[in-house]
Amino acid sequence: MSKDDGNYLRFTDTNSQPPELNMKSVATWSHPRCKVLGITSLPRIRLLSNGEVEYESTDQEDMCTDMEVLVSFRPWPKRTLNLFQLQSNFLDLWVEGSLEWEINNLLTHTSHGDTFYSGARFQDPLITHDVFSTSLTGEIFGYYLADGNLKPMQPLNHTTDIHTTTGEIWAAVPHGSLTNISTIRGNVKAFVVPFGAANQDDSSQLHTSSDQGRTFVSLYDAPPESLEGWYGDLEARILHGPLKFDSSALQDFEKGDGFGKAKRGREGESVMEAYIDTGELAVLLGL
Question: What is the pLDDT of residues 231-256, one digit of tens each?
């Protein structure tokens, strides 16, 4: 868990035996803007052996500083953590997924900082089964991989929940049983790799929403047999703005003022819905 409550930052995990860590570098410096304005930086910082970083709080309104904390965990032996949690008020969170660890639940939260997670560049990436990432004003960038990249692709019991209030969201995620990506006043760009639910009879749900921002969702690297096996109803509605609806493989196509409906198959139980209040709506299906 990483916690930033104004005067300390702590990294731990939920195992009884915490993983060995090495605080490779801790640096504080005044931002160039601080020097120009004659603003002072933090007076003192302490690094404790348990990974806790303490600094003296101050009531000065002109306080300005930058702080970078680099924490390196020993990547071996392989570990399985039930919960790994990172929280911060103002600090950005950067997670490089180069550990040969397996995390059942990864939780990250920043109030005003950005969150960056990348597990794509490494041969033995960090495996995360369920991901929960939230932010108020900070941006969230996440590149999450499935267990062992799952090649060949197999059903996956995975959930992803990403939410911001005003921050941007860019996410590449594996889709298993549930994927929920939402923001209130930010933009969403999501690249979703569909694996499907672990059991054939289980539901597999994908939700994205933005009250005042743009939303772009693309299914990436989907298995051809998965697309060919999709049967159900599709509906798209927009109150104010143009609607583009394109798919040659759908049946019973119906289009009117601000809406479009279609289906594939006669007894399909899948449902695909898109709703827009004011803006532009484009639904392009490669079935």
Answer: 788 888 888 888 887 766 677 778 88
